[in-house]
Amino acid sequence: MADPRIALVHDWLTGMRGGEKVLLEFCRMFPSARIYTLLWKPGSVDPEIERRIHQTSFLQKLPRSHAFYRYALPLFPAAVRSLEIRGADLVLSSSHAVAKGVRTPPGVPHVSYIHTPMRYLWDEAGGYFRFGRGIWWKRTALGAVAPYLRRFDLQTAAQVDHFIANSRTVQDRIRRFYHAGATVIPPPADTDFFRPAESPGDGGYYLIVSSLEPYKRIDLALEAFRGLRRPLIVAGAGTLERELRAHAPANVRFTGRVSAAELLRLYQGCRAVILAGIEDFGIVPVEALACGKPVVCCGRGGATESITDGETGVYFWPQEPDALAEAVECAERIDWDPALLRRHSLPFSRQRFHERVREFLRAHTGLSFNSPEAEDHATRSPAAVSASR
After folding, report:
1. Residues paired with 147 in a beta bridge
2. Residue 71: other Cβ atoms inside 10 A
3. Which domains does the chain have, with CATH numbers?
4. For the chain, what is the largest distance between any 2 Cα atoms, rounded to a whole number of angstroms?
5. Using one digit for the tens of pLDDT, what is the confidence trace for 64-119?
6. CA-wise closest residue to 40 among 82, 9, 75
7. DSSP H or E stretch at residue 94
8. Taking Cα atoms as reference points, which of 210, 267, 260 lies closest to residue 380?
């Protein structure tokens, strides 16, 4: 018996970040699924995703849409509603913006995996929507369209049959903003690829793996390390890159985007990974644990669901440079056990994610799925784990 026909809906495809890694796993779970998305920048995501793209919205036709799509925010509702899904037995959306608002054919169940309700509409508008420069007209424009977008967000949330949240933090946001329940299934980390070095070592540097966006609070980490004078490597790119580089102290080095192999080497060689922002869940901390490295993270948000204070990392709070610097010094006094750190990453493996998603879909949609075949990990492209973040 063939698997059900599945339509995968994702907000946009412009880089391999956490949400795209989840989408990639959906592609691997459902080899015949088709992808529907608002827009796609060719070459920006894993080839396994790009081969599945079936339809994009009218935003794809706008000049340089992949570079300026954020400014088309008022058009997002119309764009996602313009996607036409036909011949599907199940719609599975991967949403951090409007993907969950897609039109579904009558009688077809819609399950939405929520990375977060739109941050810039509900709880972090000031920091998330700056795009590197807090120009007044951007905030004014967001304020003007936010009521309309919130109405759309709430109306389409009511049309989703079942929610999956990527963390308890997001589960709580779904309850508060959408007044709906959600089952928590954390996103996967590739614990086969991310692993400790054969000869574990400490290169003496600390590591940030992140997109360079305002809500990630890289600025906070730079200030903390200005005083610590310890080496810090920042791997990733984003709208704040030029500004952050200009204000970074001499002990901080930026790599930009890195390959999968280089990212693994950076994890394996660091003293600890730094997570300065409040995350929805955060795959980076799990990747660090899989490599046998502790994590210094903010003591709020989704990172606290994979990192245990004093056991697999150190929390800091409040979200201030002095608090982060103190947590780094605390981490240096702890004798970390790489094997224990590695064990804590394994419940977040890709295999466990596949099992939990299939179990959920069987239980809530009435559809049956064939047992997945064993994957040939040796032939998988490492591009899936490159740090575009």
Report:
1. none
2. 13
3. 6-188+349-368 (3.40.50), 206-345 (3.40.50.2000)
4. 62
5. 888 888 888 899 999 999 999 999 999 999 999 999 999 999 999 999 999 999 87
6. 9
7. strand 90-95
8. 260
